[in-house]
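User: quick one, sequence for these tokens?
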């Protein structure tokens, strides 16, 4: 961290350093404010702005010698957009309270909102002169917070400001709420949600009813824990339903959910308070852009810039909202606009860097990251990105037509060829199917640690539960080593590449449900074991109120009731795509995407073929429910209560084919190790619904029972059926490998290990069996790939692995590679006789 004490003491920075040396011990806390000032502040805090301003104006008109009154009046005028009146009040009192840092900081905002940037800057310059002229006058603890704000404006190191100003204020008065709030505000500006949350937690204990603190707590949880964010936001608005920052955040949350009409209603309520608020009009401009009303977008942007023509936050806000909706190109253009107004505006620089990295413009994007890091070493998101850049530099890069793939060097040796193969197949199939011309190459980055994936994807740690994310030209994905759950990484890459195709085809102008629905649908089309599929849980949800019409599907992603409901949203969206294709074919689906690409509103595009959105919704709901009812006509899926489960014999009298009842019975039998009875129950369940795709479903249970009964052939049959249905049956496939290695059925071993390569390629047991089977089948190409993978995984006997690899290369008639592998074997074990003999043979050749 750079020191600030070694710079000239005539600057504000030097004065800051001298404060740290001297300490703050000069003056006691001021006396308590008058009761009427407390009353006015309470009115302001509760949203009764007119009443609070009337009280403040009366005191200002009396020329009461207390700067708190004019500040309160100015704040009231600013909240309501009465910027000229705020300026009049400031200019009328600034000479009387000319030594007030707080007032001059407020004056900076006043002048900016009156389109007078120069006079606003003069207030900041005046503070610096005041500090240089009479530093002793500002050594009392009441000035610590405004001084901290001033030093941050001057670009001082936030860590030093925190230590010298805010921490010192808390040390002098642990109940200083303002100091905790100032700490949180600074942390939020630097994307340090952890520090912000800690400061706000302390502030809320001291003042749990402050709408601003509750609003900031909502921001601190934004993007990481939606439930907490919504809870704090609701509390803030309960305390003050006219608190503009909270209303703006509420509008942004509705925009995230693609509820633009609802967001517009909230913005209208803000206009009733302050019709000139720049961010109000910036959000209206963003909504207009997202719905394709570009004329209204321009009008709203001009209105946003009326108070302050060079306000960089306006274009930054518009661009950020576009980027949140995956419109990164348009978003980056707005950030560039913001930076033409203020080249040092940190939020726009950071957002532009993220946008460029997601657009694949890595050289400029990383260059921006480097520049921001040098000028602002405290920004957490930029620090994380810089750390990630260093990690990416160590990745292997695989370049093939259409792709630049970056992944861990060891993982690239283990399953890099399969990554290339999967992505190339997806390109050949999907680009043709959707008649899309792509901007290439597509950048694919696969991370062996979840935290690195989250930083590259979201800018900050978090994002648990995501397997992969697509931004149009960039795909980020967790590698199998990064996850605690079994998944099929091939299906993930296929899914994300499908996003590449549809997002580029529509220029990112498609609702989320449609994008996700097509990708899940295409997973199932590629491989019947991939993608979300119907099961008893989804069946019940399809027949309940959990099923929503197409017009409401995007909301299912953005505000799911639970993780299960989020997964159900993926499934129902894929059903909607399946329904669309059955009804209007692939041509109809491409037509829908083409309509969206030209900026047609989703509701209009969706209504074109069916005739109306209402008819589309009704037909889809009928289609989905029929799908549920057709899942199994033999089974009774009536829900089983705890009471019914305790009396299964009675339950079976009325429900002899009860699927939930039989599952409950099977669970008891397995717990009691009643294997023969469990076998009978499990076979009944299999008959009632033979297509169970779960990795731990009925076929896995049957395999376990057969193994306990020492019925190897039956166990193998159940495991094969499991492999035909489940996407990632890791344990089942490993068991099949073991069974068939013992039987020396090498063809089958290759079959199972090839499946496992798409699930758990970093498993040494898998690579050992794969290489052995390939050698037995004299598939030297596959043997070389498997042995190369095994060699990269720090094997127990590296010399033997290299020797076997040499023989595989020899089988492929590549003596140079064979000789290199042989020498590496001898490097590990110089007296390895077989390797020496092979080396002599190679030299003779």
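Assistant:
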């Amino acid at each position: 961290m750079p020191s600030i004490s070694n710079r000239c003491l005539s600057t504000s920075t030097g004065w800051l350093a001298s404060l740290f040396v001297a300490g703050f011990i000069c003056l006691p806390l001021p006396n308590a404010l008058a009761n009427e000032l407390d009353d006015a502040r309470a009115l302001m805090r509760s949203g009764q702005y007119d009443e609070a301003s009337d009280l403040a104006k009366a005191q200002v008109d009396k020329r009461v010698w207390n700067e708190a009154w004019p500040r309160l009046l100015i704040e009231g005028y600013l909240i309501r957009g009465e910027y000229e009146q705020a300026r009049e009040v400031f200019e009328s009192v600034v000479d009387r309270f000319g030594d007030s840092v707080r007032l001059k900081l407020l004056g900076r905002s006043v002048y900016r909102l009156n389109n007078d940037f120069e006079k606003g800057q003069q207030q900041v310059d005046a503070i610096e002169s005041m500090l240089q002229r009479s530093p002793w006058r500002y050594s009392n603890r009441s000035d610590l917070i405004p001084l901290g704000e001033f030093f941050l404006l001057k670009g001082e190191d936030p860590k030093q400001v925190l230590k010298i100003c805010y921490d010192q204020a808390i040390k002098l008065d642990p109940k200083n709420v303002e100091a905790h709030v100032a700490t949180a505000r600074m942390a939020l500006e630097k994307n340090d949600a952890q520090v912000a949350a800690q400061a706000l937690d302390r502030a809320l204990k001291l003042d749990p009813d402050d709408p601003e603190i509750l609003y900031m707590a909502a921001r601190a949880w934004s993007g990481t824990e939606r439930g907490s964010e919504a809870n704090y936001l609701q509390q803030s608005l309960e305390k003050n339903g006219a608190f503009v920052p909270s209303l703006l955040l509420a509008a942004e949350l509705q925009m995230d959910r693609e509820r633009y009409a609802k967001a517009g209603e909230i913005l209208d309520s803000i206009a009733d308070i302050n019709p000139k608020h720049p961010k109000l009009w910036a959000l209206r401009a963003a909504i207009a852009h997202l719905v394709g009303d570009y004329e209204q977008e321009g009008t709203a942007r001009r209105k946003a810039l009326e108070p302050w023509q060079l306000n960089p936050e306006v274009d930054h806000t518009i661009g950020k909202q576009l980027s949140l909706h995956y419109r990164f190109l348009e978003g980056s253009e707005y950030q560039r606009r913001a930076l033409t107004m203020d080249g040092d505006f940190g939020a726009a620089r950071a957002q532009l860097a993220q946008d460029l990295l997601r657009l694949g413009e890595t050289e400029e994007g990383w260059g921006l990251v480097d520049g921001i890091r040098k000028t602002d070493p405290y920004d957490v998101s930029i620090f994380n990105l810089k750390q990630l850049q260093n990690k990416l530099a160590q990745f292997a890069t695989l370049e093939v037509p259409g792709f630049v793939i970056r992944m861990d060097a060891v993982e690239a040796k283990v399953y890099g060829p399969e990554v290339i193969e999967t992505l190339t197949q997806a390109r050949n199939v999907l680009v043709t199917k959707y008649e899309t011309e792509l901007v290439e190459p597509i950048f694919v980055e696969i991370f062996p640690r979840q935290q690195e994936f989250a930083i590259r994807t979201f800018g900050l740690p978090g994002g648990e539960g995501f397997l992969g994310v697509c931004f149009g030209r960039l795909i980020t994905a967790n590698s199998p080593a990064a996850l605690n759950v079994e998944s099929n990484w091939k299906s993930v890459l296929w899914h994300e590449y499908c996003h590449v195709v549809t997002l580029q085809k529509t220029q990112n102008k498609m609702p989320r449900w449609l994008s996700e629905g097509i990708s899940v649908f295409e997973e199932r089309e590629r491989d019947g074991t991939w993608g979300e599929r119907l099961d008893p849980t989804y069946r019940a949800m399809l027949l309940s109120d959990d099923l929503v019409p197409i017009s409401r599907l995007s909301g299912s992603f953005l505000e799911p009731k639970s993780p299960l409901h989020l997964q159900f949203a993926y499934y129902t969206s894929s059903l909607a795509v399946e329904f669309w294709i059955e009804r209007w074919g692939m041509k109809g689906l491409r037509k829908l995407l083409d309509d969206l690409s030209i900026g047609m509103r989703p509701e209009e595009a969706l209504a074109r073929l069916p005739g109306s959105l209402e008819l589309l919704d009704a037909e889809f709901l009928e289609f989905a429910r029929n799908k549920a009812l057709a899942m199994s006509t033999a089974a009774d899926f009536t829900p089983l209560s705890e009471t019914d489960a305790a009396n299964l014999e009675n339950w079976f009298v009325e429900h002899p084919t009860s699927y939930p009842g039989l599952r409950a019975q099977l669970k008891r039998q397995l717990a009691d190790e009643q294997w023969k009875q469990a076998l009978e129950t499990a076979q009944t369940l299999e008959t009632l619904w033979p297509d169970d795709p779960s990795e731990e479903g009925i076929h896995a249970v049957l395999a376990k029972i057969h193994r306990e009964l020492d019925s190897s052939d039956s166990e193998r049959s159940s495991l094969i059926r499991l492999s035909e249905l489940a996407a990632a049956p890791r344990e089942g496939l490993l068991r099949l490998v073991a069974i068939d290695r013992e039987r020396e059925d090498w063809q089958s071993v290759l079959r199972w290990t090839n499946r496992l390569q798409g699930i758990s390629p970093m498993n040494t047991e898998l690579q050992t069996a794969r290489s052995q089977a390939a050698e037995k089948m004299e598939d030297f190409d596959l043997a070389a790939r498997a042995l190369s993978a095994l060699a990269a995984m720090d094997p127990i006997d590296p010399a033997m692995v290299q020797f076997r690899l040499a023989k595989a290369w020899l089988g492929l008639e590549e003596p140079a590679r064979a000789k290199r592998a042989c020498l590496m074997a001898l490097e590990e074990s110089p007296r390895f006789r077989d390797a020496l003999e092979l080396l002599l043979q190679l030299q003779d050749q």
